[in-house]
Protein backbone atom coordinates (compact mmCIF):
# COMPACT_ATOMS: atom_id res chain seq x y z
CA UNK A 1 0.00 0.00 0.00
CA UNK A 2 1.36 3.46 -0.75
CA UNK A 3 -0.21 6.80 0.01
CA UNK A 4 -1.45 8.72 -3.01
CA UNK A 5 -2.06 12.41 -2.38
CA UNK A 6 -5.44 13.70 -3.42
CA UNK A 7 -5.35 15.04 -6.95
CA UNK A 8 -7.56 18.08 -7.50
CA UNK A 9 -9.81 17.67 -10.56
CA UNK A 10 -9.81 21.43 -11.04
CA UNK A 11 -6.05 22.01 -10.85
CA UNK A 12 -4.90 18.59 -12.10
CA UNK A 13 -2.18 18.60 -9.43
CA UNK A 14 -1.63 16.49 -6.34
CA UNK A 15 -2.37 18.50 -3.20
CA UNK A 16 0.67 19.01 -0.91
CA UNK A 17 -0.68 21.57 1.58
CA UNK A 18 -4.19 21.97 2.98
CA UNK A 19 -4.64 25.48 4.33
CA UNK A 20 -7.64 26.63 6.32
CA UNK A 21 -9.62 29.76 6.67
CA UNK A 22 -9.74 30.09 10.45
CA UNK A 23 -12.50 32.44 11.74
CA UNK A 24 -15.67 30.38 11.28
CA UNK A 25 -14.01 27.41 9.56
CA UNK A 26 -11.65 26.13 12.30
CA UNK A 27 -12.78 28.19 15.31
CA UNK A 28 -16.16 29.39 16.55
CA UNK A 29 -15.55 33.15 16.79
CA UNK A 30 -19.13 34.07 17.74
CA UNK A 31 -19.28 31.83 20.81
CA UNK A 32 -15.75 32.71 21.91
CA UNK A 33 -16.13 36.47 21.56
CA UNK A 34 -19.62 36.50 23.10
CA UNK A 35 -18.35 34.67 26.20
CA UNK A 36 -15.61 37.21 26.82
CA UNK A 37 -17.94 40.13 26.06
CA UNK A 38 -20.50 38.75 28.53
CA UNK A 39 -17.81 38.49 31.23
CA UNK A 40 -16.65 42.04 30.49
CA UNK A 41 -20.24 43.36 30.63
CA UNK A 42 -20.98 41.56 33.90
CA UNK A 43 -17.76 42.85 35.49
CA UNK A 44 -18.53 46.45 34.53
CA UNK A 45 -22.28 46.54 35.13
CA UNK A 46 -23.37 46.73 31.49
CA UNK A 47 -26.44 44.95 30.21
CA UNK A 48 -26.14 43.83 26.61
CA UNK A 49 -26.76 40.91 24.24
CA UNK A 50 -23.27 39.44 23.98
CA UNK A 51 -24.07 37.48 20.78
CA UNK A 52 -25.34 40.65 19.11
CA UNK A 53 -22.20 42.46 20.29
CA UNK A 54 -20.02 39.75 18.69
CA UNK A 55 -22.01 40.08 15.46
CA UNK A 56 -21.61 43.86 15.46
CA UNK A 57 -17.87 43.66 16.14
CA UNK A 58 -17.49 41.08 13.35
CA UNK A 59 -19.61 43.17 10.93
CA UNK A 60 -16.94 45.88 11.03
CA UNK A 61 -14.24 43.39 9.93
CA UNK A 62 -14.71 43.43 6.16
CA UNK A 63 -15.13 47.25 5.86
CA UNK A 64 -11.94 47.79 7.89
CA UNK A 65 -9.91 45.48 5.61
CA UNK A 66 -11.48 46.99 2.51
CA UNK A 67 -9.69 50.31 3.10
CA UNK A 68 -6.42 48.38 3.01
CA UNK A 69 -7.34 46.27 0.00
CA UNK A 70 -8.14 49.39 -2.02
CA UNK A 71 -4.88 51.06 -0.98
CA UNK A 72 -6.70 53.88 0.79
CA UNK A 73 -4.85 52.82 3.95
CA UNK A 74 -1.42 51.19 4.33
CA UNK A 75 -1.22 47.61 5.57
CA UNK A 76 -2.41 47.47 9.17
CA UNK A 77 -2.57 44.23 11.08
CA UNK A 78 -5.83 42.67 12.13
CA UNK A 79 -5.21 43.12 15.87
CA UNK A 80 -5.17 46.88 15.27
CA UNK A 81 -8.32 46.77 13.14
CA UNK A 82 -10.10 44.66 15.77
CA UNK A 83 -9.09 47.17 18.44
CA UNK A 84 -10.44 50.12 16.45
CA UNK A 85 -13.63 48.20 15.71
CA UNK A 86 -14.06 47.38 19.39
CA UNK A 87 -14.35 51.09 20.17
CA UNK A 88 -17.03 51.43 17.51
CA UNK A 89 -18.94 48.36 18.73
CA UNK A 90 -18.85 49.64 22.31
CA UNK A 91 -20.26 53.01 21.24
CA UNK A 92 -22.99 51.20 19.29
CA UNK A 93 -24.01 49.54 22.55
CA UNK A 94 -23.93 52.83 24.44
CA UNK A 95 -20.58 52.31 26.16
CA UNK A 96 -17.97 55.07 25.94
CA UNK A 97 -14.63 53.31 25.32
CA UNK A 98 -12.77 56.28 26.79
CA UNK A 99 -14.34 55.41 30.14
CA UNK A 100 -12.79 51.92 30.10
CA UNK A 101 -9.12 51.34 30.90
CA UNK A 102 -6.93 50.60 27.91
CA UNK A 103 -5.61 47.46 29.59
CA UNK A 104 -9.11 46.02 29.87
CA UNK A 105 -9.87 46.82 26.24
CA UNK A 106 -6.56 45.31 25.10
CA UNK A 107 -7.46 42.14 26.99
CA UNK A 108 -10.96 42.03 25.52
CA UNK A 109 -9.44 42.54 22.07
CA UNK A 110 -7.40 39.40 22.66
CA UNK A 111 -10.61 37.37 22.79
CA UNK A 112 -9.88 36.81 19.06
CA UNK A 113 -6.66 35.06 20.12
CA UNK A 114 -8.54 32.65 22.37
CA UNK A 115 -11.35 31.39 20.15
CA UNK A 116 -12.52 27.82 20.74
CA UNK A 117 -12.07 25.22 18.01
CA UNK A 118 -15.12 23.51 16.54
CA UNK A 119 -15.36 20.01 18.08
CA UNK A 120 -13.94 18.24 14.98
CA UNK A 121 -11.10 20.68 14.21
CA UNK A 122 -8.19 19.34 16.25
CA UNK A 123 -8.80 15.70 15.34
CA UNK A 124 -9.40 16.52 11.68
CA UNK A 125 -6.28 18.67 11.34
CA UNK A 126 -4.16 16.00 13.05
CA UNK A 127 -5.43 13.38 10.56
CA UNK A 128 -4.75 15.56 7.54
CA UNK A 129 -1.32 16.50 8.88
CA UNK A 130 -0.16 12.90 8.68
CA UNK A 131 -0.10 13.23 4.89
CA UNK A 132 -0.20 16.93 4.05
CA UNK A 133 1.25 20.21 5.27
CA UNK A 134 -1.45 21.97 7.31
CA UNK A 135 -1.66 25.65 8.17
CA UNK A 136 -4.02 28.60 8.36
CA UNK A 137 -4.73 30.85 5.37
CA UNK A 138 -6.40 33.57 7.34
CA UNK A 139 -6.63 37.32 7.56
CA UNK A 140 -5.34 37.01 11.13
CA UNK A 141 -1.87 38.26 11.97
CA UNK A 142 0.84 35.82 13.00
CA UNK A 143 0.72 36.45 16.76
CA UNK A 144 -3.08 36.13 16.78
CA UNK A 145 -2.95 32.82 14.88
CA UNK A 146 -0.11 31.56 17.08
CA UNK A 147 -1.97 32.34 20.32
CA UNK A 148 -5.11 30.77 18.86
CA UNK A 149 -3.18 27.61 17.98
CA UNK A 150 -1.58 27.29 21.41
CA UNK A 151 -4.88 27.95 23.19
CA UNK A 152 -7.02 25.62 21.08
CA UNK A 153 -4.33 22.99 20.39
CA UNK A 154 -4.44 23.42 16.62
CA UNK A 155 -1.60 21.28 15.22
CA UNK A 156 -0.37 23.56 12.44
CA UNK A 157 2.89 22.82 10.66
CA UNK A 158 3.36 26.45 9.73
CA UNK A 159 1.62 29.79 10.29
CA UNK A 160 1.76 32.34 7.49
CA UNK A 161 -0.06 35.36 8.88
CA UNK A 162 -1.51 38.19 6.81
CA UNK A 163 1.27 40.38 8.22
CA UNK A 164 3.68 38.12 6.29
CA UNK A 165 1.85 38.38 2.96
CA UNK A 166 0.93 41.97 3.83
CA UNK A 167 -2.43 41.76 2.14
CA UNK A 168 -5.95 40.54 2.87
CA UNK A 169 -8.09 37.86 1.30
CA UNK A 170 -9.80 37.77 -1.13
CA UNK A 171 -7.06 39.68 -3.00
CA UNK A 172 -5.14 37.20 -5.20
CA UNK A 173 -1.78 38.03 -3.58
CA UNK A 174 -3.01 36.65 -0.24
CA UNK A 175 -3.27 33.17 -1.78
CA UNK A 176 -0.32 33.42 -4.17
CA UNK A 177 2.24 34.76 -1.68
CA UNK A 178 1.26 32.02 0.76
CA UNK A 179 1.92 29.33 -1.88
CA UNK A 180 5.23 31.03 -2.68
CA UNK A 181 6.40 30.88 0.96
CA UNK A 182 5.67 27.14 0.83
CA UNK A 183 7.54 26.82 -2.50
CA UNK A 184 4.45 25.19 -3.97
CA UNK A 185 2.50 25.82 -7.14
CA UNK A 186 -0.94 27.32 -6.41
CA UNK A 187 -2.53 24.09 -7.69
CA UNK A 188 -0.67 22.08 -5.04
CA UNK A 189 -2.35 24.12 -2.28
CA UNK A 190 -5.94 23.50 -1.18
CA UNK A 191 -7.98 26.13 0.63
CA UNK A 192 -10.59 24.71 2.98
CA UNK A 193 -13.18 27.30 4.00
CA UNK A 194 -16.73 27.70 5.25
CA UNK A 195 -17.22 30.71 2.96
CA UNK A 196 -18.04 30.39 -0.72
CA UNK A 197 -16.61 33.83 -1.53
CA UNK A 198 -13.19 32.81 -0.16
CA UNK A 199 -13.28 29.62 -2.25
CA UNK A 200 -14.23 31.58 -5.38
CA UNK A 201 -11.17 33.81 -4.95
CA UNK A 202 -8.91 30.84 -4.20
CA UNK A 203 -10.05 29.03 -7.33
CA UNK A 204 -9.50 32.17 -9.43
CA UNK A 205 -5.86 32.15 -8.33
CA UNK A 206 -5.49 28.45 -9.15
CA UNK A 207 -5.83 26.77 -5.75
CA UNK A 208 -7.69 23.56 -5.05
CA UNK A 209 -10.81 24.09 -2.95
CA UNK A 210 -12.83 22.38 -0.20
CA UNK A 211 -16.02 23.60 1.43
CA UNK A 212 -16.63 22.90 5.12
CA UNK A 213 -20.22 23.56 6.23
CA UNK A 214 -20.46 25.61 9.44
CA UNK A 215 -24.21 26.30 9.61
CA UNK A 216 -24.11 27.93 13.06
CA UNK A 217 -21.07 30.19 12.58
CA UNK A 218 -23.39 33.22 12.68
CA UNK A 219 -25.67 31.76 15.33
CA UNK A 220 -28.97 29.90 15.05
CA UNK A 221 -30.45 32.14 12.33
CA UNK A 222 -27.68 31.80 9.75
CA UNK A 223 -28.85 32.10 6.14
CA UNK A 224 -25.61 32.31 4.08
CA UNK A 225 -22.98 29.68 3.29
CA UNK A 226 -25.18 26.79 4.37
CA UNK A 227 -24.07 24.74 1.38
CA UNK A 228 -21.40 24.79 -1.34
CA UNK A 229 -22.23 27.27 -4.10
CA UNK A 230 -19.61 26.14 -6.59
CA UNK A 231 -18.23 22.85 -7.86
CA UNK A 232 -15.50 22.84 -5.25
CA UNK A 233 -13.15 19.86 -5.32
CA UNK A 234 -14.47 18.57 -2.02
CA UNK A 235 -17.33 19.44 0.33
CA UNK A 236 -17.68 18.17 3.89
CA UNK A 237 -19.64 18.83 7.04
CA UNK A 238 -16.53 18.75 9.26
CA UNK A 239 -12.74 18.69 9.09
CA UNK A 240 -12.77 15.02 10.09
CA UNK A 241 -14.96 14.30 7.06
CA UNK A 242 -12.60 16.34 4.88
CA UNK A 243 -9.74 14.22 6.21
CA UNK A 244 -11.48 11.07 4.97
CA UNK A 245 -11.90 12.62 1.53
CA UNK A 246 -8.21 13.55 1.35
CA UNK A 247 -6.80 10.22 2.45
CA UNK A 248 -7.07 7.71 -0.33
CA UNK A 249 -5.07 4.53 -0.13
CA UNK A 250 -4.31 2.83 -3.42
CA UNK A 251 -2.75 -0.55 -3.94
CA UNK A 252 0.78 0.07 -5.19
CA UNK B 1 2.58 25.98 42.55
CA UNK B 2 2.48 28.31 39.57
CA UNK B 3 4.83 28.48 36.62
CA UNK B 4 7.14 31.47 36.55
CA UNK B 5 8.72 32.18 33.19
CA UNK B 6 12.47 32.55 33.20
CA UNK B 7 13.48 36.19 33.66
CA UNK B 8 16.58 37.16 31.72
CA UNK B 9 19.12 38.98 33.91
CA UNK B 10 20.37 40.87 30.87
CA UNK B 11 17.00 42.09 29.56
CA UNK B 12 15.12 42.17 32.87
CA UNK B 13 12.08 40.70 31.11
CA UNK B 14 10.32 37.35 31.41
CA UNK B 15 11.03 35.20 28.35
CA UNK B 16 7.92 34.35 26.29
CA UNK B 17 9.49 32.78 23.18
CA UNK B 18 12.62 30.65 22.86
CA UNK B 19 13.86 30.72 19.28
CA UNK B 20 16.62 28.54 17.94
CA UNK B 21 19.37 28.85 15.44
CA UNK B 22 18.86 25.66 13.43
CA UNK B 23 21.92 24.64 11.34
CA UNK B 24 24.31 23.25 13.94
CA UNK B 25 22.18 24.08 16.99
CA UNK B 26 19.09 21.94 16.38
CA UNK B 27 20.18 19.79 13.43
CA UNK B 28 23.47 18.15 12.46
CA UNK B 29 24.02 19.60 8.99
CA UNK B 30 27.45 18.05 8.44
CA UNK B 31 26.32 14.45 8.98
CA UNK B 32 23.09 14.94 7.04
CA UNK B 33 24.66 16.60 4.02
CA UNK B 34 27.62 14.20 3.96
CA UNK B 35 25.30 11.20 3.89
CA UNK B 36 23.41 12.49 0.87
CA UNK B 37 26.61 13.59 -0.87
CA UNK B 38 28.11 10.11 -0.31
CA UNK B 39 25.01 8.50 -1.84
CA UNK B 40 25.17 10.88 -4.81
CA UNK B 41 28.89 10.19 -5.31
CA UNK B 42 28.41 6.43 -5.13
CA UNK B 43 25.50 6.52 -7.59
CA UNK B 44 27.51 8.54 -10.11
CA UNK B 45 30.89 6.89 -9.76
CA UNK B 46 32.68 9.79 -8.04
CA UNK B 47 35.24 9.26 -5.31
CA UNK B 48 35.31 12.03 -2.74
CA UNK B 49 35.44 12.76 1.00
CA UNK B 50 31.77 13.49 1.74
CA UNK B 51 32.52 15.24 5.04
CA UNK B 52 34.99 17.54 3.30
CA UNK B 53 32.40 18.20 0.60
CA UNK B 54 29.84 19.18 3.25
CA UNK B 55 32.42 21.51 4.84
CA UNK B 56 33.19 23.10 1.49
CA UNK B 57 29.52 23.58 0.64
CA UNK B 58 28.90 25.12 4.08
CA UNK B 59 31.98 27.38 3.78
CA UNK B 60 30.30 29.17 0.87
CA UNK B 61 27.23 29.96 3.02
CA UNK B 62 28.40 33.12 4.82
CA UNK B 63 30.01 34.76 1.73
CA UNK B 64 26.81 34.16 -0.29
CA UNK B 65 24.65 35.86 2.37
CA UNK B 66 27.18 38.67 2.79
CA UNK B 67 26.41 40.00 -0.71
CA UNK B 68 22.79 40.32 0.38
CA UNK B 69 23.58 41.83 3.77
CA UNK B 70 25.66 44.57 2.15
CA UNK B 71 22.93 45.32 -0.39
CA UNK B 72 25.16 44.33 -3.31
CA UNK B 73 22.51 41.74 -4.20
CA UNK B 74 18.75 41.83 -3.61
CA UNK B 75 17.21 39.40 -1.13
CA UNK B 76 17.61 35.86 -2.43
CA UNK B 77 16.39 32.88 -0.47
CA UNK B 78 18.74 30.36 1.02
CA UNK B 79 17.59 27.48 -1.22
CA UNK B 80 18.83 29.49 -4.20
CA UNK B 81 22.15 30.34 -2.52
CA UNK B 82 22.66 26.68 -1.56
CA UNK B 83 21.97 25.63 -5.15
CA UNK B 84 24.52 28.12 -6.53
CA UNK B 85 27.05 27.04 -3.90
CA UNK B 86 26.49 23.40 -4.81
CA UNK B 87 27.75 24.10 -8.33
CA UNK B 88 30.86 25.71 -6.89
CA UNK B 89 31.46 22.87 -4.42
CA UNK B 90 31.08 20.29 -7.19
CA UNK B 91 33.64 22.11 -9.35
CA UNK B 92 36.01 22.25 -6.37
CA UNK B 93 35.83 18.45 -6.23
CA UNK B 94 36.41 18.14 -9.98
CA UNK B 95 32.79 17.46 -10.95
CA UNK B 96 31.24 19.53 -13.74
CA UNK B 97 27.71 20.41 -12.56
CA UNK B 98 26.61 20.88 -16.17
CA UNK B 99 27.16 17.16 -16.65
CA UNK B 100 24.65 16.28 -13.92
CA UNK B 101 20.89 16.49 -14.48
CA UNK B 102 19.20 19.46 -12.88
CA UNK B 103 16.68 17.17 -11.18
CA UNK B 104 19.46 15.29 -9.41
CA UNK B 105 21.11 18.52 -8.28
CA UNK B 106 17.77 19.94 -7.07
CA UNK B 107 17.29 16.78 -5.03
CA UNK B 108 20.81 16.93 -3.58
CA UNK B 109 20.20 20.60 -2.72
CA UNK B 110 17.21 19.46 -0.68
CA UNK B 111 19.55 17.57 1.64
CA UNK B 112 19.43 20.80 3.67
CA UNK B 113 15.66 20.18 4.09
CA UNK B 114 16.27 16.71 5.52
CA UNK B 115 18.93 17.28 8.16
CA UNK B 116 18.80 15.00 11.20
CA UNK B 117 18.10 16.50 14.63
CA UNK B 118 20.71 16.14 17.37
CA UNK B 119 19.57 13.37 19.74
CA UNK B 120 18.28 15.79 22.41
CA UNK B 121 16.52 18.29 20.12
CA UNK B 122 13.00 16.89 19.79
CA UNK B 123 12.64 16.06 23.48
CA UNK B 124 14.15 19.37 24.57
CA UNK B 125 11.95 21.46 22.26
CA UNK B 126 8.84 19.59 23.38
CA UNK B 127 9.69 20.33 27.04
CA UNK B 128 10.30 24.01 26.42
CA UNK B 129 7.14 24.27 24.33
CA UNK B 130 4.99 23.37 27.32
CA UNK B 131 5.77 26.81 28.77
CA UNK B 132 7.15 28.97 25.97
CA UNK B 133 6.57 29.64 22.29
CA UNK B 134 9.24 27.72 20.34
CA UNK B 135 10.40 28.38 16.80
CA UNK B 136 13.46 28.65 14.61
CA UNK B 137 15.37 31.91 14.16
CA UNK B 138 17.40 30.75 11.22
CA UNK B 139 18.73 31.97 7.91
CA UNK B 140 16.75 29.15 6.29
CA UNK B 141 13.74 29.98 4.15
CA UNK B 142 10.27 28.96 5.28
CA UNK B 143 9.85 25.90 3.03
CA UNK B 144 13.28 24.60 4.02
CA UNK B 145 12.51 24.99 7.74
CA UNK B 146 9.06 23.45 7.27
CA UNK B 147 10.41 20.38 5.47
CA UNK B 148 13.15 20.07 8.11
CA UNK B 149 10.55 20.19 10.88
CA UNK B 150 8.31 17.57 9.26
CA UNK B 151 11.24 15.27 8.51
CA UNK B 152 12.93 15.53 11.90
CA UNK B 153 9.74 15.91 13.97
CA UNK B 154 10.70 19.32 15.37
CA UNK B 155 7.65 20.56 17.32
CA UNK B 156 7.74 24.25 16.38
CA UNK B 157 4.81 26.49 17.24
CA UNK B 158 5.66 28.88 14.43
CA UNK B 159 8.20 29.18 11.61
CA UNK B 160 9.38 32.65 10.67
CA UNK B 161 11.74 32.07 7.75
CA UNK B 162 14.35 34.53 6.53
CA UNK B 163 12.16 35.03 3.43
CA UNK B 164 9.60 36.54 5.83
CA UNK B 165 12.03 38.96 7.50
CA UNK B 166 13.83 39.34 4.15
CA UNK B 167 17.22 39.69 5.77
CA UNK B 168 19.97 37.50 7.14
CA UNK B 169 21.44 37.16 10.61
CA UNK B 170 23.47 38.71 12.13
CA UNK B 171 21.86 41.92 10.82
CA UNK B 172 19.73 43.44 13.61
CA UNK B 173 16.55 43.38 11.50
CA UNK B 174 16.64 39.56 11.40
CA UNK B 175 16.10 39.46 15.17
CA UNK B 176 13.88 42.54 15.49
CA UNK B 177 11.44 41.68 12.70
CA UNK B 178 11.04 38.19 14.13
CA UNK B 179 10.10 39.63 17.55
CA UNK B 180 7.70 42.00 15.80
CA UNK B 181 5.85 39.14 14.04
CA UNK B 182 5.42 37.56 17.48
CA UNK B 183 4.20 40.89 18.93
CA UNK B 184 6.87 40.59 21.62
CA UNK B 185 9.48 42.99 22.91
CA UNK B 186 13.02 41.89 21.92
CA UNK B 187 13.75 41.25 25.61
CA UNK B 188 10.90 38.72 25.78
CA UNK B 189 12.56 36.62 23.06
CA UNK B 190 15.51 34.32 23.78
CA UNK B 191 17.88 33.17 21.06
CA UNK B 192 19.42 29.76 21.70
CA UNK B 193 22.43 29.10 19.48
CA UNK B 194 25.63 27.09 19.24
CA UNK B 195 27.46 30.11 17.78
CA UNK B 196 28.82 32.93 19.93
CA UNK B 197 28.69 35.42 17.03
CA UNK B 198 24.93 34.87 16.63
CA UNK B 199 24.43 35.41 20.38
CA UNK B 200 26.52 38.60 20.30
CA UNK B 201 24.27 40.04 17.59
CA UNK B 202 21.11 38.91 19.39
CA UNK B 203 22.22 40.57 22.61
CA UNK B 204 23.07 43.78 20.75
CA UNK B 205 19.45 43.94 19.57
CA UNK B 206 18.13 43.31 23.08
CA UNK B 207 17.29 39.60 23.04
CA UNK B 208 17.90 37.16 25.86
CA UNK B 209 20.58 34.59 25.01
CA UNK B 210 21.41 30.92 25.62
CA UNK B 211 24.45 29.01 24.42
CA UNK B 212 24.10 25.35 23.45
CA UNK B 213 27.43 23.56 23.03
CA UNK B 214 27.67 21.50 19.84
CA UNK B 215 31.33 20.49 19.88
CA UNK B 216 31.09 18.16 16.85
CA UNK B 217 29.05 20.39 14.55
CA UNK B 218 32.12 20.79 12.32
CA UNK B 219 33.29 17.21 12.79
CA UNK B 220 35.84 15.70 15.16
CA UNK B 221 38.44 18.48 14.77
CA UNK B 222 36.25 21.44 15.72
CA UNK B 223 38.13 24.34 17.33
CA UNK B 224 35.56 27.18 17.49
CA UNK B 225 32.43 27.64 19.62
CA UNK B 226 33.40 24.90 22.05
CA UNK B 227 32.30 27.04 25.01
CA UNK B 228 30.35 30.23 25.70
CA UNK B 229 32.42 33.34 24.98
CA UNK B 230 30.10 35.86 26.58
CA UNK B 231 28.05 36.10 29.76
CA UNK B 232 25.00 34.67 28.05
CA UNK B 233 21.92 34.27 30.23
CA UNK B 234 22.11 30.50 30.07
CA UNK B 235 24.59 27.93 28.80
CA UNK B 236 23.85 24.24 28.31
CA UNK B 237 25.27 21.18 26.66
CA UNK B 238 21.94 20.15 25.11
CA UNK B 239 18.42 21.45 24.52
CA UNK B 240 17.12 19.13 27.24
CA UNK B 241 19.53 20.79 29.68
CA UNK B 242 18.38 24.21 28.47
CA UNK B 243 14.79 23.10 29.13
CA UNK B 244 15.69 22.39 32.77
CA UNK B 245 17.22 25.87 33.09
CA UNK B 246 14.10 27.51 31.66
CA UNK B 247 11.54 25.69 33.77
CA UNK B 248 11.56 27.04 37.29
CA UNK B 249 8.70 26.27 39.61
CA UNK B 250 8.13 28.73 42.41
CA UNK B 251 5.72 28.46 45.28
CA UNK B 252 2.91 30.88 44.59
UniProtKB/TrEMBL annotation, chains A, B:
The keyword Hydrolase applies. Transmembrane segments: none annotated. The keyword Hydrolase applies. GO terms for molecular function: hydrolase activity, acting on acid halide bonds, in C-halide compounds. Keywords: Hydrolase. This is Haloacid dehalogenase.
